[in-house]
Amino acid sequence: MTTGASTNEGAVDAWRAVRDDPDIQFEPIAPPDAPETPDWLLAVGDFLAYVFGFVARGFVFAWPVLQWVLIAVGIALLALLIARIFGVPILRRREKSDADKASVTPDRAEAQALLGDADALAAQGRYGEAVRLLLARSIGQIASRRPDLVQPSSTARELSRLDSLPDKARAAFSAIARSVERALFALEDLSERDWHEARAAYADFALEPR
Length: 210
Description:
Elements: H1 2-20, H2 39-86, H3 98-102, H4 108-123, H5 127-145, H6 156-159, H7 167-185, H8 192-206
């Protein structure tokens, strides 16, 4: 028992010695005073509060109408997304004016020169070469006037579906494409009738009255 009492008294003495040590701080330190906010920063805060408050009040005031606008925009975007997924052509380029379409028509002298060269081949019975000549040089004529329409990989069938071309130009490429594709893929020799059909379609487009 004496040993226990001595131990407790020793612990108390040690605690008091620590508490009495002036080098150890036991009292809580008061926090420093908060710095004063500059007047200019208070002014900025007041200005922002006014601006955002005005915007918030305007948003609340316009919400009955704005909610329907947002719903309409959402529906339109959803419809556009569905159309893009299923390939529905909702948005098409505006059809070119007649003046823009007419700009692809070759010069009359150039068209007549092409028909003259093709006629010379047809006169020798080389109808397939005559039609292919019409195709190659007529595509070149379009490309020289509207390079935005013709790409290196463009085919006559693709050109025949371009809304930017006049109806007669698309009809000419369609007629020529049918003959050339039949000669290439079906391995058929083109007849005089095929040649006259392609020639008439090209002449109807290239030699139309200006």
